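== Polypeptide entry ==
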Amino acid sequence: MAPPNRTARVAVLASSVQRSRSDRHPSRARSAAVRRTVLVLLVLLALALLTISFRSPTSGALHDVQGYGASALRPFQVAADRVARPFRDAYNYVDGLTSAKAENAKLRAELKTWHELALANLAASKQNGTFKRMLHYEGGPTFPSGYRAVNASVISFPSGPFDNQLAISAGSHSGIVAYAPVVDAYGNLIGHVASAGPTTSRVMLISDPESAFAAVDLTTKVTGLVRDGQGNTLILDRVPKEASVRQGDVIVTEGTRNALYPDIYPYGVPVGQVISVGTSDIASFLTVQVAPFAQLGSLDSVAVLVRKP
C-alpha cells in the first residue's frame, strides 16, 4: 500500500520543477539588459561631447582636456609612424618601380610603332617621288618610241659582292619578258630582265661581268662595247687608238645596227659619262673609263621597257 503522504510529495515536486523551468537563464537576460543600457549611455555621452565640442569656445575646458590627451598620445603616434614608415616607403618604392616599368614598356611600344610608321611614310614619300619622275620620263622626248613602261619596286638587292642582280615586283602578268631593258626614274640604263616570273622578275645590272652591249659617244660618235670595270665604273672597250674620246663625253646605247641582229637596248638610253681616257704601247685599244649615271646600289623603283605589239 502507498503511504498516505505520497500525493503531497508529488505535488511538491511538481511545483518545484515548474518553478525551475520558468527561471532557466536569469543571468543571461540581466547581462543583455546591462549591455544595452551601457551602449545607450555611451551613445548619449558621445553625442553630448560632440555637441559641447562644437558649441564651446576654442579655449574651453573640453579643448584643454583634448589637448592633454593628444599630448599624452603623441609619443605613441610618433613611434607608430616611425615603425610604419619603412614598410610604407618600401611599398611606395615597389609600387612606383612597377608603375615605372609598365609605363616604360608602354612608351617603348608606342615609340616603336611611331618609328615604323615614320619609316613607312618616308619610304612611301620617296617611292612616290620616284614614280612621279618615271611618269615625267615616260612623257618626255627622250622616252624611246615603240615601248611602254612597266613601273615596279625593287624588292631585293644583290646578296653579295659578286652578285649583280636584283628582284623587282612585276613579271609576265604585267607583260614583262626576258631581255627587256630596265631603266631608273631618270631614264638611265640599269640593265635588262634576266628572267621573268608571273609576278616578279630578276634584273641583270650593267655592272655584271656577263653584261656587254654596244654604246656610242654622243659627241664624237665613236662606238665601243660597254662592260664592267673596276670598282663602280664601266669600261668602253674596243675603241681604236686613233679615235677621239674626251673626258666628260656622254655615252648612250647604240641600238640596233643590223636588223638581222637586233640589240636588246634601243638607241639613246643614257649609260654614263667618261671620267678618264688612257692608252699604252702594248694595248690595241684605248682605255675609256665610264661612270654610270644610275645609282645601281640604291634603287627603289625601276621601269621596264616593254615593246609594243
Q: What stands out?
A: Residues 213-293 form a domain with the Thrombin, subunit H fold (CATH 2.40.10.350). The mean pLDDT is 83. The chain has two domains: 72-206+296-309, 213-293.
